[in-house]
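Supplementary notes (optional reading)

For those who missed the lab, this is the record we used. Protein: tRNA(Ile)-lysidine synthase. Length: 329 residues.
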Amino acid sequence: MDLLERVRATGLLPAAQPVVVLLSGGRDSVCLLDVAVRLAGREAVSALHVNYGLRDAAGADEDFCRGLCERLGVALTLEIAARPEGAGNLQSWARDVRLGAGALLALARGGRLATGHTASDQAETVLYRLAASPGRRALLGMSARDGLLVRPLLQVTREETAAHCTARGLDWREDASNDDHAYARNRARAGLVPALRELHPAAERNVARTAELLRDEAAVLEEVVDTALAGRDHIAVAHLGALPPALARLVVRRLAEAAAGGLCARAAGRLDDILDLGDGALDLGDGARAVVSGGLLRVEPTPPGRSAPAGAPADQPQSLSRLRDRHGS
């Protein structure tokens, strides 16, 4: 099955369904734009290019994207972004800018937002997350669909997008910053992924397929956690201790993330400490604190000034009376 038919089979670019393509000018986004036009139809497709002004080639990239969209008959929106002081990680800031602008366009047009992430990107993501943070979530990678965001090329390798562009007579731009080994993702791209490919030529697609299967299984696990909690925001410590350890860790993580309003990667690793706590409180990290009283476990946001930095040991258990005296709770 050729690339076009494989993408069609995903159902992520249905005919006549409006879609905004994030267009950097690189091979993957150029391939995606061409495929979107052929599957969804030219009238349904538009593109967004963000010029961050961070590289000497930024102006040429913008001109290229404008010319490509004119050739394909696609409307192009240009976004000029200036990085403010204190914006933090450069790549995270740039990602937030383009996804935010793209989401606004997609919502205004009643359609989807498509990115050119490939199986190669998926393999890099999984390998990086495995190295940086242990746990099942590292293996889940990126999803093919996340709300209005779709990734139609997740089963396609970077080499295949290049071959598609070449066959279609489409040029693309090369971003020199992709070769900068100062970024961890680039180091994975340059070293780890080629090593996997040497082990097996379908390594990238196999990683992507594994992530897809694990996401399906993760949905089943979430339903099991729902059953264990039965709609409550707390659980008896005795009940928690009687659960299979893997399920108990998932329950702790669910409670912690509900309290903190974000990911709490370290919470599940504190299961044994929670079971041994007695009445008291324990910092779980990432803005969550476990509180046990009367045999019931609840998780609440960590009071201001008490969050432990990443990698630091959590608080020692404290009595509830002392916590009330100190924080007025």
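If you only remember one thing from this example: Residues 232-301 form one domain.
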